[in-house]
Amino acid sequence: MALSTSVHDLRTLIRSSHPLVVIETVEEERVLALLQSVTAQERMPLFEWSVTRGLTRADEGSTLSKMTATPLAALQHLHGLTVEAVFWLKDLGPHLQDPAVCRQLREVAAIYSRSRATCLLTGQPVTLPLDLDTIAVRFDLKLPDRDELRSMLRGLLQSLGPRTTRPRPTTLAQSILSSISDTKTAENGLSSKEAGAILHALQGLTLHQARQVIAQCIVERGTLSAEDVQTILKRKVQAIKDGGLLEYYPLEDNRFELGGFSNLKSWLERAQVGFTTEAKSLNLTPPRGIMLVGVPGCGKSLAAKAIAREWKLPLLKLDAGRLFDKFVGESEKNFRKAIEMAESLSPIVLWIDEIEKAMVAGGGSGEADAGLSRRLFGAFLTWLQEKQQDVFVVATANDLSSLPPELLRKGRFDEIFFVDLPNDAEREAIWNIHLGLRKQDSKQFDLNKIISASDGFSGSEIEQAVVAALYRALHRKTPLTTDLLIEELAHTMPLSVTRREDIDALRQTAEDRFVNVR
């Protein structure tokens, strides 16, 4: 259970005389439960401080001193206390840029480091001055796991049951409660399968978000059922959008088609067997993921979307560039958040776009970014090797030269594919797809002539040629013709010409090292 693990870890920090602990979270309810459990086991008093109430004893609620409302006064009061306790400072973060407050907290920490007293700061975010950051320990409060969510669900149903105006409220609450206790069925309530689906859908939300969406379902419909899974997932998708790190592509909206890539499609067909119960019975682990490297605009991004569609899974896109944050430590936290959300949605395809941007910041040395790229790279490799959830990673990269060699070593990914410029057969498939998407009958065009004229063009360049030619046709008020398409191709300088040397170097690097997608 996530909370019990957190209790153990925090007890260890307090026992080892860590005077300053920081938890970046808005979930004060979970922090309170954590601290109550820790202090009860350690037989220590718990005090809370906020700008509205000053310093209070948690189990009594009475204000200790009317003079502790301001941050500086509260810290001066703590400086004079000799009691070994945990002091939860809720609103101190925004005031730490005040030199006097910062200095007073350092002096408190110096005294508490020689005892078992601990100051715990919470907020979102908590930005510490560098001199305090070297003293503090940041404690990662993970999102609630299945057991914690089940406990919340029980409590919510017990509190809502007697108050609802729906028929037989107590019976309804009891039947749902029995189902979430992992029994096989519950008369007039949820089956254990339905309850499991709801609990799984809730993972990835904060406890507050989970409680809100469950309460919404019960108030609107008077009960819980498998239908509520979709409501929960919609709330989770909204949380993803609000976070700004990930983009979510629902399975039902994924209509992307992939022309060519025969080797990749064959590999995917074989790899899908790894998710079956037969594979698990042979102690085979599901495939971890693949990397797609190669020429820009040749279908790497499209392949990620097509894989999710082929496997009938939703898709999450992580833009590596979004991970970086101006605050030290924020990038690693962003990465952990993204991974936690991906795991909560499993089974899912996680597409990491332009992975080199995250793994080689500062030119790959890690010096220009204070070691950030090395830390992110290490965290990613560890997660990729040890992940337990069914998250299939599709990483795409354009610049092979800047990728760390450890990432390209055999075994990191299940396979590394090289994506080159499309050949004749693939260009024919690409032309058919993009003409069809724009309601054009490919049989009305001289495809052989168009395929020949587009030699050296990438898939994205072909798509743009179709779009631009259609605009030209609309402007001239004439139908789209073969000549218009060829005219547009003639006015386009493809990447294979403008960056010929880079593409040749890329092909040379990939030769005999990676599997061609064709």
Structure description:
This protein is α/β, with parallel strands linked by helices. It folds into four domains: 2-138, 3-Layer(aba) Sandwich (Rossmann fold), CATH 3.40.50.300; 146-243, no CATH class; 251-419, 3-Layer(aba) Sandwich (Rossmann fold), CATH 3.40.50.300; 424-498, Orthogonal Bundle (Helicase, Ruva Protein, domain 3), CATH 1.10.8. The chain has helices at 2-15, 28-42, 71-79, 99-112, 130-133, 146-160, 169-179, 192-202, 207-221, 228-243, 262-271, 277-281, 300-310, 330-344, 356-359, 372-386, 405-408, 424-437, 447-453, 459-476, 482-490, 495-498, 500-510; strands spanning 20-24, 46-50, 54-57, 86-89, 118-123, 137-138, 246-249, 289-294, 315-319, 348-353, 391-397, 415-419, 515-516. Strands 7-9-10-11-8-12-13 form a seven-stranded mixed β-sheet, with helices on both faces. Strands 3-2-4-5-1-6 form a six-stranded mixed β-sheet, covered by helices on one side. Helix 19 packs parallel to helix 21 (482-490) and helix 20 packs across helix 21 (482-490). The chain is elongated.
